[in-house]
Amino acid sequence: MTLLDLNLAEAREGLAKRDFSAVELTKAYVEAIESSRDLNAFILETPDHALAMAADSDRRIHAGDARPLEGIPLAIKDLFCTEGVQSTAGSHILQGFVPPYESSVTHQLWDAGAVLLGKTNLDEFAMGSSNTTSYFGPVKNPWTKVGSSAPLVPGGSSGGSAAAVAAKLCIGATGTDTGGSIRQPASFVGCVGMKPTYGRCSRFGIVAFASSLDQAGPMARNVRDAAVLLQHMAGHDPKDSTSAPLDVPDFEAALTGDIRGLKVGIPNEYRMDGTPKEIIDLWQQGVDWLRSGGAEIREISLPHTKYALPAYYIVAPAEASSNLARYDGMRYGLRVDGDDLIETYEKTRSEGFGDEVKRRVLIGTYVLSAGYYDAYYLKAQKIRTLIKRDFDQAFEAVDLILTPTTPFAPFAIGERADDPIKMYLNDVFTVPTNLAGLPGISVPAGLDSDSLPLGLQLIGRPFDEETVLRAAGVLEEAAGFDARPPYVAAGDKA
Q1: Of 76, 227, 99, which Cα lies nearest the Cα of 160?
Q2: Quick check: pTM over 0.70?
Q3: Is 239 a catalytic residue?
Q4: Fold topology of 3-254+440-491
Q5: 57, 129, 130, 157: which one is catalytic?
Q6: What is the DSSP string of 150-164?
Q7: Which of 13, 141, 163, 312 could link 152 by a cystine bridge, Cβ 3.0 to 4.6 Å?
Q8: Is 168 a catalytic site residue?
Q9: Residue in 21, 36, 77, 140 annotated catalytic
Q10: Could you read off the pLDDT of 258-273 as tens digits, one per residue?
Q11: Cβ contact 414:158 at 8 Å
Q12: d(Cα 114, Cα 229) in Å, to the nearest integer?
């Protein structure tokens, strides 16, 4: 076993015992990243910064002053502002932008002793389900189909973080989830990805896509690592008015392995036409695993599920059109001069935004316009309320809900580029959770016939991440998922 094979808990223990140094651990990851640039998982590598942070961690460890994440090398999605380190949101319009402040989530991670390896690639402004809309090019999934070398998407928008975790280019990573952007890529690469309850983690310093939906969360190799990372990402933040003023539980302690008596709901509406039999069969296997662990399985109904995706693609673009209005070339980022102020705005935004961002800004502007606000945006918000009510009623009868994470396995880069609607269907199982502000986690549970990873999703009550993690740990143990992506196994790059 190499240093790169250690999960977070193992690395934490090894550092505490001084079996290896933080510098040695960080250097191993720096070298792995350098040798894996063909994945395009990182927009910016920060090796010197990482090694300096690791050296400081070693001094603290030797002084007996180690913090909870001392010396743990992490990758940060390039949607989080990092003080003094370029933060682009995967866009051209913010290329070269160096924030003078730190996001609250990353500030907490550095305060806990973590080490910054670099900023990971993402769909531009987190708008996408494939990580192919980034200005810096697509990310490649470390997995490929058996008998094929065609590159696959890692999912999006947190595809760079997902690929980095799966290829063992970091111990863990941060992601953000607006409509499934942590859980869907986690499923596509075979790692664990968790979206906490809206308000559990501060949004301060995270470049906004849709403010009522965006939520930061961890991406990790296993459920315990995700719990540890979430512990040091969560917490109330006075700088974010949507941050919940609640104490943070001990998430790692919640992993008792005991789910006896838990009631798990199976929503009929998630049995959608066209879902591959392999995914339906895996879902049933997940039901059997939880039942074997002592959980009680109940059929439930979430009747407004079918309206979730269209409602999301009204609400999210509407908020995006408002949030992205600030990128005008006047204060920061790209500026393309025109003959007058209006032409400068037009040229800057035309050259600075990619096609998918332009598409969503136009949709959002349209549904917020005077003639269509009531017909589209207001109606979508009413549907959102009904979707949340469905979940509230379901949680009167059950403690958790089990579903597939995605309706299909990873697909080839470019395969669905000309069909936005088909691309949006990636999020059909994850979007309802965001609209209701609930916690959800994706756990790798099996492989399809092409030897590609598939995930199962658990959804919980608001601010009940402890129960979600506890059941996820049981699901993980029962699945025994230990497959390695061919990229890692073949090249021994991690």
Answers
A1: 76
A2: yes
A3: no
A4: Amidase signature (AS) enzymes (3.90.1300)
A5: 157
A6: --B---SSTHHHHHH
A7: 141
A8: no
A9: 77
A10: 999 999 999 999 998 8
A11: no
A12: 10
